[in-house]
Specification:
The protein starts with 29 loop residues before the first strand and ends in a 17-residue tail after the last strand. Helices cover 8% and strands 31% of the residues. The strands form 5 sheets. It has a 7-stranded mixed β-sheet, with no helix packed on it. A 4-stranded antiparallel β-sheet has the order 8-16-11-14, with no helix packed on it. The chain is globular and about 70 Å long. It is mainly beta.
């Protein structure tokens, strides 16, 4: 059976130590072996900036830190296991199930990928890559707008497709990025300016996918993870419910959006307004910078030290 937790060396040592975390007074900042630095937080609303609430699942040992995103269109919540929070790079690493999207044979389609999380302060980081495996397929990753193409790639197979062909593809593993468009392809993901992508557009020109047990699928994963695993070999012939259990690492970029005065046209205001900097960046050694949809706080050179937090007043 497919193992539900695929340990990635890219995620080793990812958690923030309690000494490095700093939160609001009288708020929990630890969950299992993870620490939660402000603007993230758990529990009462005073413990986090709007949009940065996390949940600690204590039903497991060790407890698991979760990011819960709600999709108003479908009335559903999605849970993502948080394995790292970085104030320095403004990223969150997550492990996601249901991340491997099977592609139906012989037809083109549009499938939902992340859901409608337009109010969430997250977008895909450039530390991810887009992966497609299968024959005679072209897949595009679409943002909020159907004309907003974030990434995409095409994968082709010879007309005399066979298991030997896919075996040859798999043998290229562990030699760097090995999907070159024959049998599978990989593509970089640029920074998305409109939040998380919502759907995949699949153009299927394949008639022979059913002739092989090799499934057609697509996924987004932290860059390098796919090359280190013989994922195609692991999921070949598996049932869809087993494939859905595989936990795939992804990196999300975050920025503060809610509860701040924002101009209608962010591109016309490249800097950080004084009122935003005053409200958001509380350390006297920090400065405010503009993101693609919101704002961020960073430390001035030499002041980014363990236990410090640009979003909170300096201690002492």
């Amino acid at each position: 059976a497919v193992v539900a937790m695929l340990t990635s060396p890219l995620l080793a040592g990812a958690e923030v130590s309690p000494a490095e975390a700093q939160g609001m007074p009288d708020c929990d900042i630890t969950c299992g072996n993870m620490s939660v630095p402000y603007p993230f937080g758990m529990g009462p609303a005073r413990c986090y900036w709007p949009g940065f609430n996390l949940t600690c699942n204590t039903g497991q040992q060790p407890a698991k830190l979760l990011l819960v995103l709600s999709d108003p269109d479908f009335g559903m919540d999605s849970n993502f296991h948080v394995t790292e929070i970085s104030l320095r790079t403004n990223t969150v690493r997550i492990l996601r199930t249901n991340a491997i999207m099977p592609i139906s044979s012989g037809r083109s389609s549009t499938v939902f990928f992340f859901g409608n999380y337009s109010e969430a302060p997250y977008s895909l980081s450039t530390g991810n890559e887009f992966i497609l495996s299968g024959c005679n397929l072209y897949v595009m990753l679409i943002g909020d707008d159907t004309e907003d193409v974030i990434s995409g790639c095409a994968s082709f197979c010879p007309s005399n497709i066979s298991e030997t062909f896919f075996g040859t593809v798999l043998q290229r593993a562990n030699r760097g990025r090995y999907c070159n468009g024959m049998g599978c392809c990989q593509a970089n993901i640029p920074m998305s300016s409109n939040g998380l992508p919502t759907s995949l557009m699949v153009v299927n020109r394949n008639r022979d996918q059913e002739l092989t047990s090799q499934p057609a699928y697509t996924l987004i994963a932290e860059e390098g993870w796919f090359d280190q695993r013989r994922l195609s070999k692991e999921i070949a012939g598996r049932e869809k419910y087993e494939i859905a259990k595989v936990q795939v690492p992804q990196v999300l970029q975050w920025e503060v959006i809610q509860d701040l005065p924002r101009p209608d046209d962010m591109t016309a205001h490249p800097g950080c307004p004084v009122e935003v900097a005053r409200k958001l960046c509380k350390s006297k050694n920090s400065y405010c910078k503009r993101g693609s949809r919101g704002y961020l706080c960073q430390f001035m050179d030499g002041y980014d030290k363990p236990g410090s937090n640009p979003y909170l007043p300096d201690e002492g």
